[in-house]
Amino acid sequence: MKLTKSLSFKWRSFFLLLLVGISGPLLVGQVQTIGQWTTMSYTMPINPIHVALLHNGKILVVAGSGNCPASLAGCPSGPPFGPSNNSGALLLDPTNGNVTQFNVSWDMFCNGMVVLPDGRAFINGGTLAYDPFQGSLMSSIFDPATNTFTDAPNMAHGRWYPTVLTLGDGRIMTFSGFLETGENTNTTVEFYTVGSGWSQPFTAPFTPDLYPRLHLLPNGKVFYSGAPPVSNLFDPSNNSWTQNVATTNYGGTREYGSSVLLGLTPANNYDPVVLILGRQPGDQHDRNDRPRRRHSEVDLRAEHVAASDRDERRAAAQRPGCGAWWFNQR
């Protein structure tokens, strides 16, 4: 989901992406080895903005207004958001394609979402208003046992495009997102504890990206990466930040990029390595720019922090962003 202004939408095809069977030291383009993408025969009745895989195997899809503001014809005029105005939320059973739609009482568009240890889904923040986007202070919990949403207490301030993360002690950490006043970004961390609510806000010494990429490390700290080349560490035990713990050799901004914590296994002694990847400016919008893939690895072992960077160009005939790219871990 890109950061866009008011866009109308019709029915959008929902691609259920199944990735299976990654094995072997080298990943090659063979279906029997790495799986394949499959386009399902059915479409989504809502714009699939944010999804979560639940413990029962079903997929929760939360759209809220679905990037369809009341100012546009055919869009929801306001809450509730649901089947009557092609918005809200739904539950998809991927085994048979059955879809169950739900009403939601507030606009969950551009929320952060995480599955709680007890199997319920925690939806955090959303849209208070469009143009400019203003962040909602609200949160809600979806219970797959009853298929119901229950609102949680409000945060101290709004968040539009926040990231939420489950910590080792079960608390939920939320960070970033536009404030309820508009374009300014919420620079605080808040913690949600099931049964007792929100902590006080703890202010970061920098302004984060929207939807920052957060990863819980084995030592309990949180690794932060974003569009800028520098990464930071957050210690939830004392609410402190360590800035500039690693810098990519690339040095450029990875707008709308991503990162992933690679698998922690006995074979690698559970040493955390974060793969940072994504396009550089121009890859999507400038069709004359040769498509490329670029990724960085950040090794976060206790002995050292190191960053390496790789840049590989694809054939010039291929369009940017159209290929599936694989990374072989060293």
Overall average residue pLDDT: 81
Which structural class do you get from the secondary structure elements? mainly beta
Binned, the helix content reads under 10%
Rg (CA only): 20 Å
Uncertain parts: 1-28, 283-292, 310-330
What is the tally of beta strands? 23
How many strands, what sense, and barrel or not for the largest sheet?
5 strands, antiparallel
Specify the overall morphology: globular
- Count of DSSP helices? 1
Describe the structure.
- This protein is mainly beta and 330 residues long.
- It is 1% helix and 33% strand.
- The protein is built from one helix and 23 strands.
- Strands 11, 12, 13, 14 and 15 form a five-stranded antiparallel beta sheet that branches. The chain has a four-stranded antiparallel beta sheet with strand order 1-2-3-4, with no helix packed on it. A four-stranded antiparallel beta sheet has the order 5-6-9-10, with no helix packed on it.
- A hairpin with a 4-residue loop joins strand 7 and strand 8.
- It is globular.
- The protein starts with 30 loop residues before the first helix and ends in a 17-residue tail after the last strand.
- 32% of the residues are buried.
